Fold each of these.
Amino acid sequence: MARTRGRRRPRRRQRRRSRGALSELRAALAALALLAAVGLVVWVAGNWAQVWPWLAGGAGVALPLAAALLVLWRREQANRRRWWLRANANLGRIDAMPGIAFEVYVAELLRRDGYTRVVVHGGANDGGVDITCRSPDGRPVAVQCKRWRSPVPAHEIRDLLGALASTHRGHVGVFVTSSRFTGPAVQAAHGSPVVLVDRASLARWIDRSPPALPAR
């Protein structure tokens, strides 16, 4: 056993030497790169009059190209969202969605129908609101989504009302579910700034009949 250990020591020393040499090489390369960068900055500063026309010409080509690529990318993203919305335009597919996918789906319905500044918050600490947006007439809207099979109870409506009275004061509330609301939940929303969208209303919304917000 002692001989075996003695034979392994030179290999360990060789590995340590290799690692040390590699570290020194990396440090040397980093120093050279830093010197090259400093030299480039000094050279550009000393020859600014000659360099500036080239930089300006390059920017004149690069900026419009970048803007065009950004427009194309946004159009592609919008096309993908519309395709995904159509591909899932039935309640059977919605029933199979996880909760976060349902929130994204509702957000896409809002975008399709002219809502702007649509942001999906979601998560366990969403403060009772999954989506915030602006209605077509400019009002702030806070949306809560529940992709449930069981009916939505009254305390969920009260939680949304609490959010509208605190962190989302001044917002119109919309509560969307793939199920239905209990009688007490409907009573809790009665006369409040919360619009209830149950399964039947959601089906109509998918068919381009969005829920009406309360009058101003």
Note: Helices lie at 2-46, 48-87, 91-95, 99-112, 154-165, 183-189, 199-206.
Amino acid sequence: MGEPFPSLRLRLPGETLMNLRALSPEQSRKLAIGLLFFAVIAAVAAVAVPVWLANRHYDRALADMTDRLERYTRLAATRPEIAKQLESIRARDVRRYFLRAGGAALSAAEVQEAVRVGIESNGGKLIAIQVPASKEDGRYRQVSVNVQLTANIEALRKIMHRIENGTPVLFIDNLTVRSQVPSTFKPQPGGEPEMFVQFDLYGYSLAGA
């Protein structure tokens, strides 16, 4: 009766040794050469692979450093132009864009005068100006006024342009425009209806000046 599982028969070390002893001298020599070849390949791989990985890492690091150096060089080349622009800015009288130095009441009076002139010189009618409390913001003080007026669309356009392009610099916020005539109103040729306009107007002064 044959073995039940011949394919699962294990080869014992003693049998392997006997098979090796049964090899001819030529076969033994070829086996030794093959083992030596694989041993050399394994030794070379053990040394070459880490060296190759290290070289790739350093190549990437060198490429990154080269790229940074090129960017810093380009940035350094712009330094004279930047310095020239800074000198140009310092030479300007930037204080003229701020409200007059002094207390909040003085700055608020300057804003009121600017908006009054802007409205009355462009065909509007000033109704009221209210002055809320100013706001301190570090070196700067924000001074605001609330303005109410009436004007037609053309006069309002001129008033807005005058305020936003004047000196000192003033900013318009919370603008509300309401019609004062019914929707069925038909103006005469060349005439525009008056509108009610309300907005906040603010500027900045140098708090420590």
Note: The radius of gyration is 45 Å.
Amino acid sequence: MYRVSPARVYGGMTATERGRQRRAQLIDAAVLLMGTRGAAETTVTAVCKEAGLTSRYFYEQFRDRDELLRGVADHVFTTLESTLVGAIVPGVADVGLVARAPIEALIHLVDEDRVLARIVFVESGAEPILRSLRNDTLSRMTDLILDKARLFFPIEDSAVPVIHLAATMMVGGMSDALRRWLDNEIELSVDQMTEHTSGLFASAAAYVLTADAGRHAS
């Protein structure tokens, strides 16, 4: 997925198109390096070498390494979010099914694209820019859970703080669990990870719904 094609002359391409091509090459090279060798080794020199481009072309596209990292972050976190959002099944009122589809999609993404997963869940902690963008993404994921919960289930405004608490705990815990799974600290198969994570999410959601129903009964 992140194989970097060598730079070459493209007949009929405008200067803008060639610039976009080089930018994509540089971002792909940075993603590959960061996801395999780590953030510390993702230098401008290393990225240019991997992309097969000179530093002149790098600085035509990016002011510095930090701007490149923002491009990397935009790529990986957009992929992460689109995977989750695209897996949500509309019109489903079963808590377990609502939770399982996006969790299954996320775990399969992590398993199948270890380069991207390592950037999101491991290397992003070593780079302030990536860490900030990762935190923004986790916040959006928390808000997404809150929005979908209110869309699919009859939840009153009074229950929103509890849902927010549960969503924050689930998203933060899931992020750390996936990091540990990548490092083989959690020894579960893909299917086991999907099954147990979905069950835990469903249990938390059921608690929120039960607590909300209890408030109405009282």
Note: The chain has a mean pLDDT of 86.
Amino acid sequence: MKEKILHLLKTKGYYMVLALSVLTVGTVSFLSYRASQQEKAQTPIEQPEDTQGVDKIDQTVPDERNDASGQTDEQNPPAEQPAPQVTAAEYSAPLSGEVIAHYSPDQPVYSYTLKDWRIHSGIDIAAAAGTNVLNVCDGVVETAAQDDLMGNMVVVRHTDGKVSRYASLDTIAVTEGQVLKKGDVIGTVGNSMLLECGETAHLHYELWNEDKPADPSFLMGS
């Protein structure tokens, strides 16, 4: 038996010593790793540093009165006010007088100025020169000027969309863009209309609806 052991040591001894060395190294490494873990577990955790000295974040709320460009309300001009609105439409006569030429869009009537027969798109109301001509309905002045054929003329667009043309005036008392009430003076009676200058002093009045002449006789009660 002893001889077998000696023979085994001679033939396998090298490998046995190598195995023991590896086992020894592994054991030492394991013990060292375990000791280091225990040391870490016993080390106290460091507390965070005091943040009292840290600068606070600026939480200043911007002034809402300042716009993106930095201008204040005092530097911004106020919004423009809307144009005055006119009121509901109600009609009245432009003046009192005799109708000397009636509305006749289809049947020609005789013209004492031109000495011929032609249609008549409005009514002619005779009155003394200088008599005030009144606005027949609330509206806005579109034209206030001298026309080559119609003479001194005022055109008013009313609140219902209809348009009045006051022609053959002597004087004009309104300006373009002016807001008028019913009964406001727009001018005076004259005889400035080239197509009717052979007539007596009168107002030539036309009422238009959707770009077509309409009969204004109802204004005079007829």
Note: Residues 145 and 153 are 6 Å apart (CA to CA).
